[in-house]
Design brief:
CATH superfamily of chain A: HIT-like
Mean pLDDT of chain A: 96
Helix content of chain A: 25-40%
CATH architecture of chain A: 2-Layer Sandwich
Order of helices and strands of chain A: HEEEHEEH
Strand content of chain A: 15-25%
CATH topology of chain A: HIT family, subunit A
Radius of gyration of chain A: 14 Å
Largest interface: A-B, 29 and 29 residues
Oligomer: homodimer
Shape of chain A: globular
Number of domains of chain A: 1
Strand order of the largest sheet of chain A: 1-2-3-5-4
Number of strands of chain A: 5
Largest sheet of chain A: 5 strands, antiparallel
Low-confidence stretches of chain A: none
């Protein structure tokens, strides 16, 4: 069924793809306010984590752990925020966000807090390169 | 070290205890806008999920799954929102929130969206009783 997966157009529009882990596509949000990864399991028609078979739930949890660890190492952030919300875009996706006490929304959660800010291309490309080095994604 | 755990006073003030799972204390938020559970691993000095030993991370994920399943069965909600944020109260805690398309904040995330509303005692007591039946907590 994997080949029936397609990324929701809103997620595609709001992110840059980093690459794929075995279960999840890994995306970087186009928002320079915070280094912000989004993991999307490459399975069709999922809304809740608990819609996955149990083995894949555990695999997803492992990939969230990998993404959070990579983000922490690359950004030396103060706090990680991890969430599965999906009230607007129902395709199952998990946010992993690196927060700093000096960021634009701190201490509020990031969703809807402040408008997204565009990355400077060199900063974005350096972050993507660092994250690709820290996380075993394949193109 | 388990005996050095104590619940953060802000979490204690904002919730009613449902009982304990093997790893986590399970709390019900005092907010009638949404059935809202909070899981707090009974370990001292934790901030991130990834501060737990790996076996306990997996145990926590299993308990999140149990809590989410119980909440879904009891409330027949439209969507589950699951998050570890902790920017304000740093003690590790995981939110599991039952959302309805008719609730006060939909589709926004619940944090900071609208002021908490007090439960009527009979509605709160019924919800607590139903959740205790659905989830293997011990007092």
């Amino acid at each position: 069924m994997t080949d029936a997966f397609s990324l929701h157009p809103q997620l595609a529009a709001d992110t840059v793809p980093l690459g794929d882990l075995p279960l999840s596509r890994v995306l970087l949000a186009k928002d320079a306010n915070y280094p912000w990864l989004i993991l999307v399991p490459k399975r069709p028609a999922l809304t809740e984590i608990f819609d996955l078979p149990e083995q894949e739930q555990n695999q997803l949890f492992g990939e969230i752990r990998q993404a959070a660890g990579a983000l922490k190492r690359v950004t030396a952030c103060d706090k990680l925020n991890i969430a599965a919300i999906g009230n607007v875009v129902s395709q199952l996706h998990v946010h992993v966000v690196a927060r700093r006490k000096t960021d634009a929304a701190w201490p509020k959660p990031v969703w809807g807090a402040v408008p997204a800010t565009a990355y400077a291309a060199d900063i974005r490309d350096k972050l993507i390169a660092d994250l690709r080095n820290a996380l075993p994604v394949v193109p």
